[in-house]
Amino acid sequence: MNFDKELDARGLNCPLPILRCKKSLADMPSGQVLKIVATDPGAIKDFQAFSKQTGNELLSSAEGGGEYTFFMKKK
Known about the structure:
alpha+beta; 4 strands; 2 helices; four-stranded mixed sheet
């Protein structure tokens, strides 16, 4: 998937991946896509909830090798 910016949140635990994501999205124009890579298993539920609360679209989430990859489109 194409993305405009990447956020490495590996090794960070809740709520840091969400806080870093929020900060990254704030610096991006509407419609751009942020790729987030995290290692916290709780990030799956966190990013789903964040998407619903903020209106930013969670395009996809995947898990592999102990890492979780998310693509979020800024509203």
